[in-house]
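Q: What would this chain look like folded?
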Amino acid sequence: MKKISLFLLLLFFDNVYCQNEFNLIKSEETIISLDGILSNDEKNNSIIVPIQYEQEPGDNVPSKLKTDVYVTYTDTYIYVGVKAFGDPQNIRGQVKPRDQVDYQNEDIIFLRFDPFRDSRANYILGSNAFGSQLDLRVFNATSEEDSFDPGFNAIYETKSSIVEDGYILEFKVPFNSLPYPKGNDQIWNFNISRVYTLNGTFYRNQSQPYDRSDPCWVCQVTDKLIMNDIKFRGKTELLPFITSNISGKRDNNENDPIEYGKLNGEVGIGFNYDFSPSSSIELTVNPDFSQVEADVSQIDINSAYALEYPELRPFFNKGMELLNFMDGAFYSRTINSPSFSSKLVDLNSSSGTILLNAIDETSPYLIGGEDKSYFGDGGVSYINTIRHQKIINEGNKLGVFGTSRYFKEGGYGNLIGIDGLFTFNKIWRFQFEINKSFTKEPKNNWIETEDLFLDNTIKLDGEKFSGSASYFRLSRNTEHWDTYLFYRAISPGYRADVGFVPRINRKWTTIYHGYKSFFEKEYIQEFSVSLKGDLTYNFDNKLKSQNLDFDISIKTFGKTVIEYNYDINFIRNYLNVDYKNVGKSTLTIMAFPNEDLSLMLKNVFGREIAYNEDNPEIGRENSIFFRVNYKIGENINLLSSINYARLRNLDNTKSFYDGYISRFTFRYQFNNDLSIRLVSEYDKFNDTVLLQPLFKWNPNPSTIFYIGGIQNSINEFNLDPEEFNPFSINRSQFFIKFQYLFGI
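A: My prediction, written as C-alpha cells:
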C-alpha cells in the first residue's frame, strides 16, 4: 500500500491553462424570450463571450468569421444567445431529428459544461443553424475515441433564425438538466465552439485557446461561469407509457394468407426524483426497453465472436458515465427485458456512485471462448451493479465496482474490480482495471457444445470456477506524436455476465507509435501515420497471433479524408492451427462534395480465414461498403448504403460466402419534433427483406409517440433462391407506442 501511495504522489500535478472568468448577471425570466431573436433586454443583461480562436485547421489563430455569444441566467436556467456572422448562402444544415446532425457538414454551435470542474466528464449540448439538437457526454479516458457517449440525453430548448448577415441561435438550458455540485453559489467550467465549412474547408472555432500538445481536451475546458444565488428546486418526473402491437405470419407455404394473432398491449411507468442537483433515484415498473429504431444490420457470417451494438434506451442515460469501462465489465444491453429496474445516482465534486438493479425476464447468456463466442437465451435473472469512483484531483481518479447476476433456475455470475486513471506532466497517462469473477453455471440447455476450457465444459452443467481480467495502458501524447504501451489479460475462467467479453484465454501486448500534423493548405489539411504491433498468447503461452498494423491518413480539399490500413498477421492461431501471412488492406474514403451530399466508401481486400467452415482455411476476401447521404431542401433526407462481402478460396474454385445487405432510408422532417421515415433493407445472405415505416413525434428525449410496423419477407419455406419472391411479405407486425414525460 505504501508503494501505491508513493506512486500516486509522483503522478499528481496541477495544470495551468488560459482561463477567463465570467461573472454572469442574473436576469428575470420575463425578459428572456426564446424566439430566434436577440432582443436588447437579452443582450443588456448578458455577458458577451466572443468565439475568437480558430482551433482547426489553424492553431489558435484569429477566427475568420465573427461570433458573439450572450450568456445570462435566471433562477431556473442558463440562457445562451449566439449571433453567428457569415453569408447565409453558405449555411449548411437541415431540420433533423435529435442526435442526427452531421458534425462534419453542418453549421453547429456547441456548449460544453464541466459543472464539477474536475475534468471527470464534459456535457456537450449543441444545435445546428436550424435548431436541431445533438448532445453527448465526453469522458476523461485514455483516448478521445474511447470517451464519447452519444447515448447521453439532456432536456433543453433551442430556437434559431436565418438573418441577412448569418444566423441566430438561442439555448435555454434548465439547471436540473445537468448534474452540478450542491450550493447556491456556482462556478462551472465551460467553453463554446462553432463549426462551419467555408470554401470547402472545415473550421472549428473556440471561445478559448486549446493546447494541441495536451491530449486531455476535457481538462482544457477552463473558462468559468460564475453564478450566484441559485435555488435548487427538486424535480419529480413520471414517465408512463402504453404500447400495443399485433403480429402475423404465413403458416405453411408462401401462398397462405398472413394469420394475425391477438392484439397485445402493455403499460408501464417510470419514476425519477432528484433530491439534490447531482443525486437522483429512478424506478421503472414493466419498462418498455424495446428498440423501435431498428439496429443497422451487420454482416456477421464470418465472425467467430459476438458483435456489440450501441445503447439507445433512455433509462441507461443518467449517471452511466460511471459504468464506462475499457474492459467490458458492464454492458447495458445484457439487461434485455426487465419487469422492474431501479437506479440510484450520486455525483459530487469528490466522488460518484451508482447503484443499478433489475429483474430481467429474458436474460441473454454470452460465454467468451478462446476462438469463438457462445450464445444462449437465459430465463429470469436478478441483476445488481454498484460502482464508486473517487476523484483525487483533475485527471486522477480511483474506482471500485461490482456486478452480480443470479438466475432463477440456479447459477450466478459475480464480478468485483478496481480501476484508476492518472495523469502526470500533462502528456503522460496511466490507466488500469483489475477484475475478478466468480461463476456458478446454471444447469440448463441454453448452450449445448462439447467444447472445453481448463477442466470444465462450456455447456451449462452447474460447474463452479473463477477467473481474472486485467488492463494496463501507459500513453504519451503530444501535438504531433502519440505513443502507448498496452497490456491486457483475460484468464480462461473469466466471465462477465453483466458485461461484454466475447473472447477469453488471451494475453495481449501492444505497442503503438503515431505521428500527425496539421496544415493550413488547400490540398492537405491533416496528415497522420502510425504503426502498431501486437503479440497475443493464451495462458498456456501458446502464440495466438503476431500482428503488424500500418495506417496512413490524409485530409485534403473538400473535407475529403483518405485512409489506408494494412494489417498483416504473420501468425494467427485458430482452433490450434497456425495460419501464416494473413494480411489484408482497408481503404476508406469520406467525402463531402457539397453541402447536400456526403459519401463514404470502404474497401477491404486481401487474405482472411473462413472461420465458420468445418475445416477453416485461408481465402481471398473482398468487401465493399458504400453509403450515400443526400439532402433535399431543409426537410428531406435520403440515405442509401450497400454492404457487400465475399470470401473465396485461393484458387477461386469455391466461395465460402458471397452476398450483400442493401439499405435505404427516406425521412421527411416536418419540424425538429415530427417526422415520417421509411426503412427498407434486403439481406442477400439470408434472403430477407425488411420494411419499416415509422411516424414519430419526439419533442424531448423522453416524450415519444410512434406509429409504425415491420414487414419481413423471409425464405423460411426453403425455396430455391430463384423461386423466392423477396417482395412477398410473410411476417408482419404493427405497433404503437406513447410515452409522455410529466415533470413536477
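DSSP finds two helices and 45 strands in the chain.
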